[in-house]
Amino acid sequence: MIIKKIKLENIRSYLNQEIEFPLGTVLLAGNVGSGKSTILLALDFALFGLQKNLEGASLLRNGETHGKVEVVLDIDGKEVKIKRALRKEGQRILQDAGNIIIENELKNLTATQLKHEIVSLLNYPRDIVKKHKPFFYRYTVYTPQEDMKHILLADKETRLDVLRKVFGVDKYKRLKENSAIIISWLKGLRKEYEGFSSDLEVKKQELAGKQKTLNNLKAEINKLLPEIENIKNSILAEKKRERELKNKIENVSKLKQDLTKKEAELKFLVQRKESLVKEIDNLEKEISSFEFKDINLEKIKSEIDKKEKELMNLEKEIDEAKKVVAEYQAKKENSQELLDKISKLDICPTCKQEVTEEHKQKIRDVENKKIENFENMIKEFSKKLEEKLSAKESIKADIELLRHEEKEASIYKTKLELLEEKKKRNSLLKQELSSLAPKIEDLEKEKSKIEDEILSFGDLEKQYQALMLKLEELLAKEKELLTQKASLEGEIKNISATILELENEIKSKELAMKKVGKIKELISFIEKDFSALLDQVEREIMLKIHYDFDSTFQKWFYMLMDNELIKVRLDEEFTPIIEQNGYNIDYNYLSGGERTAVALAYRLALNHVINTLMANIKTRDLIILDEPTDGFSAEQIERMRYLLQELKAKQIIIVSHDPKIESFVDSIIKLRKEGHVTVVEQS
Predict the structure, then answer these.
(1) Looking at CB atoms within 10 Å, which of 115, 163, 558, 574 has the fewest?
(2) Residue 617 has pLDDT above 80, yes or no
(3) Residue 663 gets which letter from DSSP?
(4) 163 exposed, middle or buried (CB, 10 Å; 0-12, 13-18, 19+)?
(5) Mean pLDDT of the chain
(6) Across the strands, what pairs with 12?
(7) Where does residue 163 fall: left (phi above 0), alpha (psi -120 to 50 degrees), or beta otherwise?
(8) Which residues contact 588 (CB under 8 A, 6 or more apart)?
(9) Integer Cα distance of 207 and 213 in angstroms
């Protein structure tokens, strides 16, 4: 893995900054607090997300609600771009889903999915990463100097636990620990099986007793079975008789229904005969008492039509007379009105001349003569009108009389028609009456035959009651026997179930006894053979690692320290042993430069051993050294030049504020603070 570029947005002192990383040795230079460590923390976040020792509050810039880190890597010649983001919700700072672009193929993933994708790309062992998260990355690529000093100063068990995890051999210790847990569990299981099977003989005796009881119960049931069979046969015979009696009762019931039907038919025919005789007698009386009349209905209707036409003509004449009288009356009123006006008129409205009395008199004479003539005409036509009105009333009276005669004639005609109907019905009734006698006789014979057949069956109800009483007694006896049988079968079922349980329990206890033996053998194998094998395998692996680790550790230390008086080596627990003038001295009593040299040599030796053990991981080409020269003398810093050349990594990133390192690195990225914002200068 090679870092090509990293972009920070609202991350600590960075507002929006993009930094490119070339191959070779790259120095992140700047004063304390300029933002050097922020770049490494942002890289850690981009790869693995937030962790216990890397919280969102330590990354997001104060006062901002969103932050982002983008990093571009080269992994096996493929360009990989990773993006992670932070957001502030209330007082909490959370990580958002991110994405990864591999050779222009975008994948949007959750924070956890993104971490697994990167672990897969880096080819880290999944079981180690799953248990220890980015801790593996910490000891292969980037180890803060303080973390390495912590390993050196920790007690030997803690140090060995860390190294076992790093080397991937902690599984042997876990196997031994798990073996102890399994042994404890097996011993408990053995005790449980021994307790479970302790009453095996008692259960076998109990089983024998239950089987004897079961045989006795089966013998009792065998005694009941023949008696039950006899009772069932008797019940079947009586039920057969019951069915035969029911059939007879049903036949008698049908005969009684037929008898009832015949009696009803006979009764109906007798009543019908009586009714016919009575109706025929009444019809003959009505026919003989009918009075015949000579009435011409058509002539009456013709006379009515004639009178109605006369009435219609007369009404027209009356209307004409009324109009004439009204006209003469209107003319008379006009003349009278003119007389009234002329008597009051002094000046003519037309010529405006005085109207003389003589002229008025002439007009009066003319109009009076008209009025007299009009009155005569009114009298004459009023007289004619009265005559016509009188004639109209007379004709209306004639029509009314004719209407009455017409009604009487219609009634008589209807009576004649009814008389004919009665004659026809009388004839039909006589025919029906003559046919009833043989039918009545036949029905009486059939009725008598059915009555005789019913008597031939005897008292079936009494026979049926006696049979049902006997059947009831048989069923009660059967129920009693079946109850006894069911009770015995219930006991047999319960005892059989108990026997089955006992048999299964005995089998389980016998199996438990066998398991106790196997468990003892397994405990012996784990305690003696398996644990010894684990110890041997772990010892051989750790010895091989120890040899590589110790030789590499000494190589790097002596490259940094040109002091023949100080010698270093690793003991069996990988603890650095430091000798000075033939005496072992404590790490804490070393000078600052000596302590840093021990820590850096240990760090680089650890990196070498891991890369050797796990040749397929993709972070072999990258090393990040955080303040590797802290406390170094000028001579020691100069020796760093040769150490870096000896590392032969494609990309080495050094974080330091010591300007002397600038003389032997390939590239420098300078960082400085302007206010509260980091500014980057690349050269």
Answers:
(1) 558
(2) yes
(3) G
(4) buried
(5) 84
(6) none
(7) alpha
(8) 153, 595
(9) 10
